[in-house]
């Protein structure tokens, strides 16, 4: 079964134009985002309150996220990073992943920013959020601040 369509991802102004998007957690999102832009040449794309910043570089993207305050020592490595992957046919993907034994942390749900997403933990304990664009949403409509 081929789970990843070769068709182009639909456009959603609330999402970076990248299929795989690492999410890296830091104690202070603003300081981390500024440093990554200055030191590594990223460009700030979208600011989401004070807990998430989308950064881009060429054709790629990362999301700087807030480190959970309650991250237990043994789980801190998993709270510090995760992956987001944009796909099509999310419900089929979810059913297949569940049948293969993925631990589902959040079942598929529609989000205000135009994505349908679910989150699972893989066999190595890494968190993956799978995201399907269901409509193009201006970030201003849900409280985001488009930077460029």
From TrEMBL:
In terms of PROSITE patterns, this protein maps to: VOC (PS51819)
- Domain VOC as annotated: residue spans: 15-133
Q: Which domain of life is it from?
A: Bacteria
Matching InterPro entries, A to Z? Glyas_Bleomycin-R_OHBP_Dase, Glyas_Fos-R_dOase_dom, VOC_core
Q: Any stretches that span the bilayer, and where are they?
A: none
Query: Cross-referenced Pfam families, in alphabetical order?
Result: Glyoxalase
Against PANTHER family, the record matches this protein to: BNAUNNG04460D PROTEIN-RELATED, VOC DOMAIN-CONTAINING PROTEIN
What name appears for this protein in its UniProt entry?
Glyoxalase
Lineage of the source organism?
A: Bacteria, Pseudomonadati, Pseudomonadota, Betaproteobacteria, Burkholderiales
């Amino acid at each position: 079964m081929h789970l990843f369509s070769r068709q182009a991802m639909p456009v959603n102004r609330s999402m970076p134009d990248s299929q795989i998007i690492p999410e890296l957690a830091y104690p202070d999102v603003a300081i981390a985002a500024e440093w990554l832009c200055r030191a590594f040449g990223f460009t700030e794309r979208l600011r989401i309150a004070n807990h998430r910043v989308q950064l881009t570089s060429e054709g790629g993207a990362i999301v700087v996220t807030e480190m959970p305050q309650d991250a237990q020592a043994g789980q801190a490595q998993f709270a510090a990073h995760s992956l987001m992957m944009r796909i099509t046919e999310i419900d089929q993907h979810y059913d297949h992943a569940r049948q293969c034994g993925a631990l589902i942390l959040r079942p598929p749900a529609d989000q205000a920013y135009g994505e349908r997403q679910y989150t699972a933990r893989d066999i190595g304990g890494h968190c993956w959020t799978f995201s399907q664009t269901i409509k193009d949403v201006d970030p201003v409509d849900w409280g985001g601040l488009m930077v460029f």
